[in-house]
């Protein structure tokens, strides 16, 4: 029988091997994985063989590169379908993407990042990849700002860390004061916007989703190329639509209305 210590170490090593596969490096050689997790090539090879038997990784027969296997997809599907936010938001996001042709996205907060639960692409915002499970910064995204709407200035400082905040374009808020002013304006109108703050040529508009306690549990957004989303002409229209969508999901989660809403963001 494997000791508890040995068993824990095996689980930690297997977890590290699986986490070595990232959006930027989805296919790896044994030596790549070994270097990433800090183990010997022979140990890593044995771990990969065990994970391959469990279908958690698979090896391309031509390139011999390893990639995540079908069992990971099965487990991801189970986790998503068990998530109440995902279940409530999925039909709402699908409808938005279909009717507007834009991308419709749903995310929750994980530490100082947003975590994509769902993304649906309309005809004007088609992608050849899924955003589900990926992370983005809170301060440079519309959904991230929506997830920050109920925070105080002190809470944001503790969460986001020292200034300057990471800048991705010349439009990114890199000071807490600038971010706070943006959030205060957004709280007054009920939705957040992001125009070329994370990537040039892209924009989004988002609103917070609240759970039965009245706390912000998630955010939903519409996104696309500047020419497709046209926020300079359609902000009010799209703002109303994304707020309505967020309200629909919130009601599905048991939110009872504004009387239960915490104080708005303060710069």
How many β-strands, per DSSP? 8
**Terminal residue distance:** 57 Å
> How many individual domains?
2
* Biggest beta-sheet profile: 6 strands, antiparallel
Overall structural class, as computed from helix and strand content, comes to alpha+beta
CATH superfamily of the largest domain: GAF domain
**Helical segment count:** 10
What are the segments in which pLDDT stays under 50 over at least 5 consecutive residues?
1-5
Cα shape: globular
Q: What is the mean predicted local confidence, pLDDT?
A: 91
What is the share of helical residues?
Answer: 40-55%
Q: Return the CATH class of the largest domain.
A: Alpha Beta
Computed Rg: 21 Å
Output the strand order for the largest sheet: 5-4-3-8-7-6
Binned strand content? 15-25%
- The CATH architecture assignment of the largest domain turns out to be 2-Layer Sandwich
CATH fold-level topology of the largest domain: Beta-Lactamase
GO biological process, one term: glycerol metabolic process
GO molecular function: DNA binding; DNA-binding transcription factor activity
Domain IclR-ED: 71-255
Keywords: DNA-binding, Glycerol metabolism, Transcription, Transcription regulation
């Amino acid at each position: 029988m494997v000791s508890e210590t040995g068993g824990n170490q095996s689980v930690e090593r297997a977890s590290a091997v699986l986490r070595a596969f990232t959006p930027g490096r989805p296919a790896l050689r044994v030596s790549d994985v070994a270097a990433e997790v800090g183990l010997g090539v022979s140990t890593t090879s044995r771990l990969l063989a065990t994970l391959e038997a469990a279908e958690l990784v698979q090896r391309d027969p031509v390139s011999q590169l390893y990639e995540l296997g079908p069992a990971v997809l099965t487990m991801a599907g189970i986790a998503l379908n068990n998530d109440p936010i995902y279940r409530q938001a999925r039909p709402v996001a699908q409808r938005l993407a279909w009717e507007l042709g834009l991308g419709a996205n749903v995310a929750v907060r994980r530490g100082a990042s947003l975590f994509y639960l769902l993304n649906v692409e309309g005809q004007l915002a088609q992608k050849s990849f899924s955003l589900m499970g990926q992370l983005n910064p809170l301060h440079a995204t519309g959904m991230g700002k929506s997830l920050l709407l109920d925070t105080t200035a002190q809470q944001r400082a503790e969460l986001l860390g020292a200034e300057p905040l990471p800048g991705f374009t010349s439009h990114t808020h890199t000071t807490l004061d600038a971010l706070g002013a943006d959030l205060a304006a957004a709280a007054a109108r009920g939705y957040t916007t992001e125009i070329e703050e994370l990537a040039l040529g892209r924009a989004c508009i988002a609103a917070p989703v609240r759970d039965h306690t009245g706390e912000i549990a998630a955010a939903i957004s519409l996104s696309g190329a500047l020419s497709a989303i046209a926020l300079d002409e359609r902000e009010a229209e799209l703002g109303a639509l994304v707020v309505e969508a967020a309200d629909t999901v919130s009601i599905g989660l048991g939110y009872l209305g504004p009387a239960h809403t915490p104080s708005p963001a303060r710069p």
